[in-house]
Fold each of these.
Amino acid sequence: MKTNRAIVWVLLLLMILFVATGYGLTKPNLIHSLTGGLINHQTAFYLHTLLDVPLLILLLVHVMIEVKFSLLRWGFRNPKLLNSLVFMLGSIFLVLIAYLDVARV
């Protein structure tokens, strides 16, 4: 639970940066003035493309932890099967995230 709470705080920070840099791409003058010139269009583009994979991976870890706890609450009691299921689902989505990041068209 403590790990999941820490992940949530990091996700919140990453989401704020991701949204701000996204606006930096679509409304560069607004973000440039709001950040005191710290984020321009080039910086926004660099950070936005840099943050997408860590954001998705942390989101995936957070969701898999919550799925495990939800399955436990719903009466799923076999720990080996539960861990295997969560690991398998997480691995599938991790491969999908990696593929989508590499296969930029």
Amino acid sequence: MFRFNKTTVLAAGLSLLNGCALMPEDGTRAKLLEMPNLSQTLSGNAQAEKIVREWPKAQWWHDFHNVELNRVIETALKDSPSLHAAAARLTQAEAVADYQAAEMLPSISASAEFHHRRFSATDFYGPAGGQTFTGAYIDPVVFRYHLDLWGKDKAALEAALGKERAQASELAMARLVLSTAIARSYIRLCSAEEDIELAHTLSEKAEEKVQLAELRGQHGLTSQDLVYVGKQQLEAARQREASVRSQAQVLRNKLAALVGQGSDWGRNIHVEATEVAGHLPQPEAISLGLLAHRPDVAAALWQVESAAQSVKVAKTRFYPDINLVGFAGLRSLNLKDLFLSQGASVAYGMGPTITLPIFEGGRLEAELKNQQAVYDAAAESYNGTLLAAVQQVADSLAEWRLTLEHDAAQERALQAAGAASTLAGKRYRAGLSTRDGIIDAEAGLIQQRLTASELHSAHLLAAVGLIEALGGGYENTTMRVSSKVGHND
């Protein structure tokens, strides 16, 4: 009889295992793109990777040698609400990862139950039927441990860690976006403040020409036409000056908002000379290194890794789930016998609890399909992020090189305008030209200075764009670009 029962139990167990839900076949999954070859876009050399590791620095804004810019950015990194929100999301992801790690450990708890119950006289309770008891179950030790036979808990932990690392990369990206946005606004503010002074000087020159035209008209030396033309030019100069002043105020308001302060805070931002040329490495010596130095690419890749692990979790749901459960304590129907029964109330137990997914109505297949779709979306999102990052680097390099050429050309134009102004002054002092000639020459020089200010600002903005394209000093030391990503075994 014992052998028969043993054989029967074994056969029943095998039948249950065979009755588990069948896992559908894997479809075609999305593939991750390789890093595109940009050998023609970037002229690399043996020192390229070394340069990328050293530049940009984590605090790249110090390379602009502007104390006020340093103060504004560092204040923003401490006070910005957007960064606080991103940091809170990272803390949340860390807590989820800690919870998943705890799920892999056994748990020990205690329980106590006190009850007052009556047993039915017509049920199978025997002598206790029809009686009322006040008793208790006290288990000072309750042990539970999930046997991770199929790697479900480990995959869930890896998925949570992937999301945590992705969130850390997104926090780095938020810091990069915030700091570069502040740098751009501050550079434009410096250019606007310089343009205010130049535009005001240009208005003064236009007003001086109007005064000369009016004086000559009063003495019949010229017609009123020149007076009207001069006044039009004067009003246009004043409009430009007012426009630049308004632009500067808008930039101050924007900087205050980026820092996380009220608009009055922006009025106290000082404008200082900003210079970065000569401190950046030459463009032809810059390598990509995007997988390690672009926080958005790193975040996208970690999302792929997390999604791949979530697919593994969904697959393990098709297998039997086993939990090891045990308890030890005192149990009695009567409170008076609980501690006075000389050990008769002692109870303990230990054994596995097996759950078999025999029929789930398509729930497991739907969940697996959902997680596979999440993986495919994450993989394609990574591919798009990678291509966008490569384009941003290529575009930033092209813009950087263009601003170098424009700066050099404008420097020559500025020198020519200065020489013309000096020559006009000599002619006027020699009596060879009127005052109008020197005013026009000085106005031309101011116009060239305005253009030089605009081009210098564009040069600095291109430097910020190049720094942002290269990750702003971010380095993901935990990145693991495994060939198994995308193969959900």
Amino acid sequence: MRALSIIFGLIVLLSAVSGTSYMQPIVHADKDIPSYAKWGRLAMKETQSKYPDADIIDYLHRGREDKNETSVEKFKLWLQEDDREFGVFIDIEFNAKTENVVDITFRETSQ
């Protein structure tokens, strides 16, 4: 019981010194999540659906292209299926206001 009191006291002391409370939840954690994360998850999901026997071994966000009414998030995934490795470019076009998906295109590459 004494050890628990000492540990709690150290936590309170560290909180006072650093100005941070270790007992509060972290509310700023989602600041590091990139804006394209939602689309990256969709790209991986759709790629896994299109290539069910392949493993996704690498992931690259290639950027975003803004058009008049829509935007396109661009990705390249590297897949391995049996002894074959290949890349797939995935473009996800969506309505910029509603974020409804307009089109998803796939293009394989050996590079």
Amino acid sequence: MRMSWSQVSARRLARHGLAAPAKDATPADMVTAMCGAHAQVMSAAELSIGLRLDGVTRTGVREALWGERTLVKTHGPRGTVHLLPARDLPMWVGALSTLPIVNSVAAQDVRMTAAQTDQVVEAIREVLTGAALTIDELSDAVVAATGPWAGDLVMPAFQTMWPRWRQAMATAAHRGAFVFGPAKGRKVTYTAPPAGRAKPVNDCLVELVNAYLRAYGPATPEQFAKWIGAPVKWAAAGFAAAEPEQVLFEGVPAWVAAGDTEVPDEPPRGVRLLPYFDAYVVAGRPRELLYPGPAAARALNGGQAGNFPVLLVDGQVAGVWHQRRSGRRLAVTVESLRELTPAQLRELDEQVALTGQILEGEPQLTLGPITVGGHA
């Protein structure tokens, strides 16, 4: 089967709730459809989820995370902080726990051995059982359980030095040792993950490949590897186990989940404002089709997507935007790389109003250049 960019773009938008907000869906439902929501910038995660649902604000996302606990905050693809559905956590842990540990870029005398990593992971798992600890409390407990070597201040980080054991944080999350807990004042906490039945790791990897392909297919093992942050050999093994279906995407071989070849009849349409690190653009490939022409130079950071919030027009990046909050006031500036039609300008106004509704603020739109640099 042959698929065009227009068909694939329309298909992805529909599945992400970006063609139209999903009705009668929960935040957990939508995060499942997105295959995880990037949450390094929490307000961006709230907006990512809210704009895909009908009538859900940041309060609704926070309630799903901290009240209902249908979402969890943990390290996901590429070791970065994500929101994941609690019901899907066993799948994620099962799949990510098989990731090979890549040699650290740190100097040899800073690195941890595989045995030390295992020690730290098990210490984290043990000390967080029935507890919610701040990073300082967790650090003291891990060092006490493993040895002084774990507390050596050897890792440069944000104009300070972190203890050696913190190299294992993403690995510990991937092995199901912890998730983020509710804040204590202004301090982040870590706690044990919700109870869930473990699954065979091979089944989990197949589930994850199929979830990724439903959200972002057609795709290749190389693209999956870049998204998840894994060696291509590992990703290719996952594809082989999942037995996906091959199609021709713009004339190039790519894969979808077996039998999942449906595409919308209509081309992609609509104006959308996507926040920092929105899953749609971070995972969306090929980059040259999603970020055409000047969009690549303006909205990518050395080829990396997500560092700039983007203006999406008919399924392609067509500009960048920024919002600055002061109390309830949201100053929204949009820099478009193309001339927008009157209908598109009206839709942009609606998107700005929706952003204000989700973030529970009072937005004001300005069209003009963005002077703020990309997010680190």
